[in-house]
Amino acid sequence: GACVPQRCGNGGPCLVFASSAFKPGGEIGGLAGGDALCQSLADAAGLSGTYQAWLSAGDQSPSNRFTNRRKAGPYELIPNADDGGNPPPTVAASFADLTACDADSGECLRRPIDRNEFGVAVGTRCVWTGTLPDGSVNTTPDPGVGEDRTC
């Protein structure tokens, strides 16, 4: 899944990454386990800040459990050599941008979250998050529909 730092909007960009660790949903340990996994991966990669998993459960979701949403952004990928010394690609300019989809194109992000915590390209993959594109809880998840799938 995607991991998002909580230092963003407080003097730095929001760095996002696709987890390099793969765990079935029952092995994550809920929201606390997902957050702990994201934080441990960020720590191992030398990333500063507090990271949370883009997961929802019960009545908790990124839209209500992530703090500082109004100041957050821009959301950027982890830098790597492909950036050629330039800033890393921007995924979304703000939390509002992160949770909005373009009605015409159906695109929800400016760039897919396709780098892990070390900046290594991992390609686009889909993960079940229990979260709708607007960052709220999917109260009627249906794996066949894929509306709570983040790719």
Nutshell version of this structure?
The chain is an alpha+beta fold and 151 residues long. Helices cover 18% and strands 15% of the residues.
Average of per-residue pLDDT values: 82
Broad shape: globular
Roughly how many Å apart are the termini? 9 Å
Percent of residues in helices = 10-25%
Total strands: the figure is: 7
How many DSSP H or I helices? 4
Q: Which structural class do the helices and strands define?
A: alpha+beta
Biggest sheet strand line-up = 3-1-2-4-5
* Uncertain stretches of 5 or more adjacent residues: 144-149
Structure write-up:
- This protein has 151 residues and is an alpha+beta fold.
- Helices cover 18% and strands 15% of the residues.
- The protein is built from four helices and seven strands, in the order ββααβαββαββ.
- It has helices at residues 25-28, 30-44, 62-65, 95-98; strands at 2-5, 14-18, 51-53, 75-77, 90-92, 127-128, 149-150.
- The strands form two sheets. The protein has a five-stranded mixed beta sheet with strand order 3-1-2-4-5. A two-stranded antiparallel sheet has the order 6-7.
- The longest helix has 15 residues, at 30-44.
- The chain is globular.
- The model is unreliable at 144-149 (pLDDT under 50).
